[in-house]
Design a protein that fits this description.
Length: 203
């Protein structure tokens, strides 16, 4: 930890910067049994209310953005069904990512929101390729090229962000693990679910 001494009107104050909450808790237990006047200020806890408000606002904006994108895709493709299937990989990726964070008992933080935006953008790209391929009735070679392109894109993304998932930094871990799950489920939706449904719809 880092420390500094401040003097104010003849009174000296010792300021300690402690980065580990476990150490902070131990110091608190020790000082409770003494006559030393002290105060522990937890920056994260003090800013929790502000972060919560930011999270709620970001979530609302994100939901509006998803609705706007769905409407735009439906207009451009002249079909709500096409627009829905185009956005489906992104939605499945988001649900997987949020679900993983919730199940593991972690709180959603700013890095999670960052990953959700990236997952959504990448997932929509996968949907655009797959829906376009089926509705334009690509032959086998073109379809294989489309699948290969999506797979390579997903693989490079997973390689880049997957490394962050093993980081000891909580912020980097949040970003990496969310991206890992989100991209995998977005790719699986593009490869398995969308083709299965569209084969029945597009004849």
């Amino acid at each position: 930890y880092k420390k500094s001494i401040i003097e104010d009107k003849g009174t000296f104050y010792v300021l300690l910067h402690i980065s580990d909450r476990k150490i902070s808790s131990k110091i608190d237990d020790i000082l409770k049994s003494t006559d030393v006047k002290y105060k522990i200020f937890d920056v994260m806890k003090a800013s929790e209310s502000g972060l919560y408000r930011f999270g709620v606002l970001t979530f609302r904006i994100f939901i509006i953005a998803i609705a706007v994108i769905l409407i735009l895709l439906s207009i451009v493709q002249k079909s709500f069904i096409k627009g829905f299937f185009t956005i489906l990989p992104a939605i499945m990726g988001l649900l997987a990512s949020v679900g993983f964070t919730t199940i593991t008992g972690n709180k959603i933080n700013i890095m999670h929101f960052t990953s959700y935006i990236l997952i959504f953008g990448i997932g929509v790209d996968y949907g655009v390729f797959m829906v376009g391929a089926y509705y334009h009735k690509f032959d086998k070679d073109h379809m294989n090229n489309t699948l290969q392109s999506i797979f390579v894109c997903a693989l490079t993304t997973l390689a880049g962000f997957g490394v962050l998932a093993i980081s000891s930094s909580k912020a980097l871990y949040s970003l990496g693990s969310s991206m890992l799950l989100g991209i995998v489920f977005a790719m699986m939706t593009s490869f398995i679910f969308i083709p299965t449904i569209l084969k029945k719809l597009v004849k």
